[in-house]
Design brief:
single chain, mainly alpha, 13 helices, about 65% helix
Length: about 350
Amino acid sequence: MAEPPTYPAHNRDSHRPQGHVRPAVTGRIAGLDLVRGIAVGLVMLRHALPDLFTGAGVVGVVMFFALSGYLITGLLVDEHARTGRINLRQFYLRRARRLVPAMVALVAVIAVVTLVFDPLGDRGKLGRTVLFALTWTGNLPFGHASDATFHLWTLATEEQFYLVWPALLLVLAPRRGLLVAALGTVSALVATVVWFRHAPDLAYSLPTSWAVCFVIGGATRVLQSRYRLVTPTWTAPAALAGLAVLSVIPLRGHALTYLVAGPAIAMLTAVLVIAWRTWTHVRAWPSRALVWLGTISYGAYLWDYPITLWLRAYLPGIGGLLAIAPTIIVAALSRRYIEKPFERRRAPAAASPPPPQRNL
């Protein structure tokens, strides 16, 4: 989940709803935080009310994947346009500062809770749990141990995207890189679906099942740089309606989850990003709440699943709903006392504006 960059003037358009203003030269983009808040809110609803919001987890995760593709592609393409190169060392240092401290804090707390209370009865898997979580391999067939860290497969998928995509852009121009990425990810997706045709849910956490969603986000950003992408006022509400419908449809256990639902969610997310990418202020109260949730979305995503499982172990039935409040509190504390301090410790960059940051 990436925090918003600021884009140069040629990436903006004048077609925006009343009550929202264009972004300044620097600062957060509330519209992208709004997308992020909706995504993590859907994930939390899936954990709290799994029988009602059966597809909300898939929808929220894919929204994050598409937004990540959009933001990271913009960061890399803009840097290459300014300097003629991509500083991979600085890129990975920024990613590490943004992602690692909160992840280490989560794993440390999971280790303590498991050793002291063992609410999930998986103390014997603790070593594997810590190893797979901190090496971002939880999305590989051998990379899962405790259920408390199962959700980290998404972060592993994002980290692997960080490894492949910048290198591809270094070798190829953005459009050629996107073409190669599209062909590669679609081929990998089809191969994955064919391989797991008798048990599609086994492909759920594999990176090849979702990589195309990053490409859709990246393509949106590249096309935005070349064309004046404008959406009619009805497209964002229509996209939201489509995401809402998909959130209550079971999206696990079928090949169409990967072949159809994932790309469709990514494209609906792209519509929202295009429509809202110039919003720096959101006035309506429900939207402001979601924007704020978007600013703490990385911590919320990290903590909601383990807290939900722990509470359900002692309070079956209502544990999921009770997890919402402590998740938000812990995420806000994580943002203020762990994530922000490490973000401020950046090494001076060479004549370049602050890059976008990341919160899954």
